[in-house]
Amino acid sequence: MPRRVVKRPWVGRGKPLSGDAQETDLMQGRRGAFASEDERRAAWGENRRRLMAAVNPCTRPAAWWDYEAAKPLDPHRPHDEQLYVLGALTPAECVAFEAWCARMHRSVDSLPRPAFRAPDPRGTHLRAA
Predict the structure, then answer these.
(1) Which end of the chain is more exposed for a tag (fewer CB within 10 A), N or C?
(2) Diameter of the chain measured on Cα atoms
(3) How many domains does one find in the chain?
(4) How far is CA 52 from the centre of its chain?
């Protein structure tokens, strides 16, 4: 029996951006690649999943800070610390951040509490802060 090929729509991967300049705009915040702010916001919405998967853990693209962050990015503080305080890290990122702080002899207790706490190594589940 012949194999049937099913073409899948461009779902979840976002509408292709028209060039590297647009991706750089969304990832690094270098403005000017889009005709308007509405076009930039729409491109972020369509390409969010792919762009979020492309960044390092405990970081977010510039467009995330522009459109989704509860507070604007403070350029004088580390991104991971700001994401931790906002409660915007995934549970895995939260565990990695807390482990990094322990290795660097930095206390997370001095930071404001995140919206949730990641499971500790003993295996407890997420709990309210």
Answers:
(1) N
(2) 65
(3) 2
(4) 5
Q: In sequence order, what are the residues at sequence separation of 6 or more whose Cβ sits closer than 8 angstroms to the Cβ of residue 122?
A: none
Instruction: Give pLDDT tens digits along the chain (129 positions).
Output: 455 544 444 434 556 787 788 999 999 988 888 999 999 999 999 999 999 999 999 999 999 999 999 999 998 998 898 999 899 999 999 999 888 888 877 766 667 666 555 545 444 444 444
Residue 52 to residue 19: CA distance in whole angstroms? 18
Burial of 75 (0-12, 13-18, 19+ CB in 10 A): exposed
Tell me the residue range of the domain where 75 lies.
69-129
The residue type at 4: R
pTM, entire model? 0.69
Tokens in use for 110?
A: 């001095």
Query: Tokens in use for 99?
Result: 């482990």
- Is the residue at 4 inside a domain? no
Considering the domain architecture, whether residues 114 and 89 belong to the same structural domain is answered as yes
